Each structure stands twice: as structure tokens, then as C-alpha cells.
């Protein structure tokens, strides 16, 4: 049953995601550090960057959890439907 097989991402995709994330964080951090403003402004921007990173992880985890919950509910519904169809498709025995 292919509906139960695991869906895995390729190694190239995982590497691309990690590299892109690291580059984005590094470039933004360097931009904040070399910005010609007072230290408290850099600190404020750094805190904003950390909040954005944290929020991104939270949103991604929540969306993943919702997706997995929908998959489990669909599998349960499919199993119930198969059971009902199996029960109704079997010929009734002619017991006298």
C-alpha cells in the first residue's frame, strides 16, 4: 500500500535548504553588524532578527503538525471506508 510509504526529501533538497538558511542569516547578521548606527539600534535589529527566526520555526512546525494530523485522519477515514465496503460487498450466507 503506497499510501503508507514514507515521503522523504532528497539529500540535495535538504542541503539546499540548510545552505540557503545559513546564507540568509549570515548576510542579514553581517548587514546589522556593519550598519553605521548606534549599538542600541544594532541590538534592536538583532533582537528582531532572532524573533523572526524563532517565529519561522514555530510556523513551520505548526504547519507540519497540521499536515501530519490531516494525513492520519485521512488514513483512518480510508480504513473505515474500506471496512464498510468490505462488509457490504460480501455475499450474505443463506442460513436457514
Task: Tag the structure with descriptive keywords.
mainly alpha; 96 residues
Brief overview, please?
This protein is mainly α.
Textual characterization of the structure:
By secondary structure, this protein is mainly alpha-helical. The chain has one domain. Helices cover 77% and strands 0% of the residues. The protein contains 2 helices and no strands. The protein has helices at residues 11-33, 39-89. Helix 1 (11-33) packs antiparallel against helix 2. The longest helix has 51 residues, at 39-89. The protein is elongated. The two termini are 39 Å apart.
**Total number of beta strands:** 0
Structural class: mainly alpha
Distance between the termini: 39 Å
Mean pLDDT: 86
Percent in helix = over 70%
Amino acid at each position: 500500500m503506497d499510501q503508507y510509504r514514507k515521503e522523504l526529501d532528497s539529500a540535495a533538497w535538504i542541503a539546499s535548504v540548510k545552505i540557503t538558511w545559513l546564507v540568509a542569516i549570515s548576510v542579514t547578521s553581517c548587514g546589522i553588524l556593519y550598519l553605521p548606527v548606534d549599538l542600541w539600534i544594532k541590538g534592536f535589529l538583532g533582537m528582531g532578527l532572532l524573533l523572526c527566526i524563532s517565529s519561522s520555526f514555530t510556523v513551520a512546525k505548526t504547519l507540519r503538525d497540521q499536515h501530519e494530523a490531516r494525513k492520519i485522519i485521512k488514513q483512518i477515514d480510508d480504513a473505515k471506508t474500506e471496512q464498510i465496503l468490505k462488509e457490504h460487498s460480501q455475499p450474505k450466507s443463506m442460513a436457514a
